[in-house]
Structures are given as C-alpha cells and as structure tokens.
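Section 3.1: Structural characterization of target chains.
Under the original work plan, the team committed to producing a structural model for every single-chain target entering the pipeline before any wet-lab resources were allocated. The record below documents one such target. The sequence was received from the expression subgroup and is listed exactly as submitted; it comprises 542 residues.
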Amino acid sequence: MKQPENQSKKYSSLFNDIDEGRVKVPQFQREFVWTKVQTAKLIDSILKGYPMGTFILWKTKERLRHIRNVGNIELPEPDGGDYVFYVLDGQQRITSLYAVRAGIRLTKGGEEIDYKDIVIDLDIEATQDDEVVFADAPKEHASISVHKLLNDDVETLVKEYGEYIGKVSNYKNRLESYDFSTVVIDSYPIDIACEIFTRINTGGKELTLFEIMVAKTYDQERGFDLAEKYASLIEDDTSNRNLTTAGFNGVPPVTVLQCVASFISPEIKRQSILKLNKEAFINAWDEVVESLFKAVDYIRTHLGITVSRILPYNSILIPLTWFFWKKGNQGISVEENLLLRQYVYFAALTHRFNSAAETKVSLDLKKMKAILSGEKPDYENELPKLTIEDLKWSGFSVGNARSKMIICLLSEHRPKSLKTNGELTLDNSWLQVSSSKNYHHFFPKAFLKKQGYENWQANSLMNIVLVDDYLNKREIGAKAPSLYIDGYAKENAHLDETLKSHLIESREGFGIDSDDYEMFLTQRATLILKKINERLNPEVNS
C-alpha cells in the first residue's frame, strides 16, 4: 500500500470533481444530516480563515454503491475505468459546502430546506468575533446569498452590489482561494479503506461484512444492488418467493454471503469473502438464492425445522445450499436424505459451530461431496454417543443447539393440540425465549416445585412439549399431569394419538397417571434417544 498523500484543494477544484462524478460518497456513510445553521457556521469559519478539518478520500477504480442524488441535484456517474475518490471522512462538511454551491433543496420532516437561503450579512464588519454568515437573510440588512456569490461572475455582482462590491469581492476571493486539506489514500484494498472509515467515523462501531460487500458488489449497469437483493430475499411479499413466507426470515445476511462464497471459493472466511471477484459474486447470486430455497424446503419438509428460530445453527444452511446447487434439478435419493439428516443431527448435537464455524463449514463441504458421490461421509469417530442420563438432565434453552435439535425432532413428528388434536403452527415470533407460547413444561414447574424439585430439574429438555398457544398454559397452571390430561381426555377423543405425536407413548407407561416425574423423564429420554440414534446411524447402502 502507498503512503497517504497530503494535498490541498481549492473550493472550485474540489467541487468541480463532484460535478464531474470523480468524488463520491459511499452508501455506507450516514445520510446528510447537517442543518442550514451548521452549514452557515462552517462557511463563516472559512471566511475567517479557521481550519475546518481534513477530508480523507480513497482513490480507487473499484465501483461502490454510492449516493447518486443529494436533494434536487443528480450526481453524474464516473466514466468506466477512471479513478474515483470516495469520501471516508468529512462527508457532512463536504456535502454542506456542495449544497450551498449547487443550490440544493432538501425535504426533511415535510419541510423544504433551500441552501440558497444561506447568506452573508454585508452590513456587519467582518471580525474574528462576530458571525457574518446566517441560515436566512437578516431583516433590514443588505445580504448576499453564498450560492450567488460563488456562481455569479464579477460583472453581475458589480451591477447588483455596487456599494458593497469591495466586501463581496473579498468574500468571494476568501471562499474560492481557501485551501481545503485533503488526505488521499491511493488504491488501498476495500477492507483496509473500510477499516479506516470505521476508526475515524463511527467511534469503534465496525462496518459489517455485509455493508462492505453491499458497497463492493454494487453494479449500476447490471442493476445489482446487494442491499436490495437481500431485502427482496427476506421481506414479506406475497407476490415473490421469500424467506419470510417460508418461515426463515431469521437467516442473517452473513450466512447468505457465506453461501455465495462456498460456490466460488474454497473458503468462506471474512477475508476470502472480501476478495471475491465482483462479477463472479453477481453471476452466482441467482443460483445461490435458488439453492438456498431448496435447502430451506428440504429441512422444513424432512427434518421438521419449519421455522428459522429452531434451526440449531444458521451455518448448517451453507453446506446444504452447496449440496443442492451441485445436485441441480435432480431429486434427492433415499440414501442422500438419510445422510443429510445424519449431518444436521451431527452438527447440532456436537455443538459443531460454537467455534471456528467458517473452518468447519469448509470441511463439511467435503461431507457433501461424499454424499453426492454415493459415499458415507467420514465422521472420524466424531458422531455423538448420548445416554438416557444425558438427555434426562439436559436443561432446556432456546439458545442451545441440542435443545433446538430436540425441538426439531418433536416438530418433525407433527405434534398436535392436546385439547383438539388439531395441527400446531410454530411461529418465529413465539419461539424467541424459553417462556414463549409454543413451549410447555409437561409436568408444570409450579407443580414440581411443590414436589420438592429444583428449577433446573423441572426445566429438563425431556419435559418440554410443543403447544399451540398460551391457552393450554392458562388452563393447566400448577395442576398435576394426571388431572389436566384427564380433563383433556374428556374433550379430545384422540388424546392417546395426540400424546404419541409428542413422543409420549402412553399415559400409564410414561408415569402420567401416577404423576411420576422421573419415570416420565426416563421413558421419554429412552424414546427420544432411540429416534436420535436412528438419525445418527442410518442404514444406507454403501
């Protein structure tokens, strides 16, 4: 990287560069928020010769997503292949000064703000103490618009401001001859340029990888705007296929970026994503989206992961998306289904992505290659070996991958309403906390407390069932299971079938009739462990 270069620019030179499209404000900068009063004070400081800070510009041939319009002024696009100077520091100041020179009008809060209104009071003698620049023309004083001062020729100014022409000429000269301090960083990589922006602008709040990639992959000619593409992928719009209507609006932008990277790079780490070729990224986008939807459809229909909130890890989507990309339009076989399901249970029950997720995803792509080749993936003795005791006293937590995988297992068996035997609907908005409407402790915590059980014992993962709404909780309260289940049996003629959909084989055999909590935990853990082992150790033709 070259050393930063200090330069001085005159008012006309700096803003001619903006007029001609050579200086741009990247889209990750905050909106122009300075008021006319702030802008007036800035111009007053320039007239007095005060220093006003340094503009930091990034010189590059990269084309970033940038601001195309400021108020009523449409900014031109730079010629292809030319260098562009992106403003990394000084955006509010440079936009304020440009707003005055260009005569910009903005609408904020329903009120129009016209920067042509900023004036210099010609009846005040310029001193270091008194301000001479104001947001609006002072009453009963002669004044000149700064916009007019900068844009009219001397002959016109002499005609209109004859008696004040000395002051007018002096002010015009001061503005046009002011040396603006600029530092140019030349041809730095985009991640370094964004790091510089972060350090000097946001008080330590780092630009996200997604914000950087939005800027880097923007292509006006091809109509590609990553921010808009991701919004379209997520937003709830019945006219287009999207992740919200599929129940997967919780998929974060970084996961989508990693899916793209898996298509075109051997690694999905941050630095690898930042180095992705822009054209390759854009070319891959539609295939990534299509494959991502296939992955989501698969885990919804085959694994009971009907909403993103119970997906153990978002990272699981990356190898699956890659698999369905390679699979193309062919349907998956019985063996492939079993092996994909094995992989998801392996990843969740070993807490695989609690650390070094990017490295592990790259390794897991090899497992996907093996499945596509008709081979069993090699887990190198890493498949979990759970016991009944492990499950009995596993605590339930919505942030825990094991808990989520068990919830997915319950969801896969299409649990029914205890009261009506109707189908349950899981909702992302209900699944955010352990106390949400979809989760219910079959042996109520209040009941178990009276029996001498501590809270952690009552919160066993094996004590969790999925319910349709909070009504069940209101009706059940602290009742013994034998009592409230008898009550539901009177309303629900299919209660035994209903309980089986919750992986509870029988009332008597699971200790419900006798209110035997530990018997319930043991029997349910035995059944759930059997289901888990069937998924971890599928019988497939090798």
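The chain has three domains: 5-186, 209-372, 388-532.
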